[in-house]
Amino acid sequence: MTALLTCAMAFSMMQLFLLGALGPRLVGELGISPTVLGLTTTVGFGTAAVLSPVGGRVVDRVGPRRCLVALLLTSAVALTLIGAAPGAGLLLGAVALGGLPQALANPATNKAILAAVPGPQRGPVTGMKQSGVQLGAFAAGLPLAALAGGIGWRGAVWTAAGTAVVAAVWAARRLPADPPPAAAGPGGRRSLLPRGHIAWLTVFSLFLGCGIASVNTYLALFGAQRLGLGPTAAGALVAVLGVAGVAGRVWWSKLAGRPGLGEWLPGWLAAGAVAAALMLAGAGAFHPLAWAAAAAVGVFAVSGNAVSMVLVMRRAAAGRAGLDSALVSAGFFAGFAVGPPLFGLLADAGRYGPGWLLVAAEFTAACAISTLWAARDRRATPAGAPA
């Protein structure tokens, strides 16, 4: 089940990692600008942010297995349409469709873990399945980018689409059956509002997502336009970020399960992300810094989202695990929608240095918010009580 959940997380965002890794080829072949490239991220994650609260309630009602199969099939359709896009119009429509798998991913996988994984193992399993997102980044940045050099970028995207169909069949056969769909409970619209620690994690995720999305979308283009890397080498920067993110998410998620420690981890990781963004700002003058910075973004910034999911599952209200996961994810996706267009304005002007400083400021805001929440939470928790 862990392998399946990891695979589902990889495909939930595969289309956006592919657009980032293949950005130099898309800008050249489709004639789109860096701003339009950033707009693809805005459309995809904006759709995911809007759909996430509803998706969380759907997962709570119909079960994770049905939602995970739907996630993988929808990803396959979105990737197929991206590969067929003749220009920006269909490309943006396909990316919008890809917002649905993103909206379902965290609620469905978290719900599956709560249903089938014993408490002590949930942190490591969560870290592993969250690392699926970075495995997707690695796949987009190295093997699929290399494949695009041989069969073209469309063929590489269609290869990913076919693999998503295989994964959907695998999920339908191997995941435990869902319980009968639950009846809609009381609470109505009020229950869609984040409350307490969920509200803090949602705002933290908003700023974290702004910074991560800018790096994901423009790192390869920065490598090609400012560091003189070829398309495959520029895509490898995204792959480095992906590999580091896998290791970081697994390691930090294990620590996040410890009461009293997990609440402080988001702030620490955001502080490390600030340092990574400053390294990117300096990479224009000293190119090798870009590789170290890509790894640091994976280890620190990307891992922050996995830690927040562990905290959600530890403290979710009864019957709200799917919805609470979705609300935090909605903040993260909203950040992904906002960050790249702001960075894109600077990239269009060739001002990558100020762009990376903007990313550092976004990570700094995430650090401040999470540290304030952890301090407030410690004061509110009586001595000896479970966090």
Automatic annotation (TrEMBL):
Residues annotated as domain Major facilitator superfamily (MFS) profile: 1-379
Position of the signal peptide: none
Alphabetic keyword roster: Cell membrane, Membrane, Transmembrane, Transmembrane helix
Keyword flag Transmembrane helix: yes
Major location category of this protein: membrane
Pfam families hit by this protein: MFS_1
Membrane topology qualifier: Multi-pass membrane protein
Residues that span the membrane, as ranges: 36-56, 68-97, 198-221, 233-252, 264-283, 289-313, 325-343, 355-375
Compartment(s) of residence: Cell membrane
Entry protein name: MFS transporter
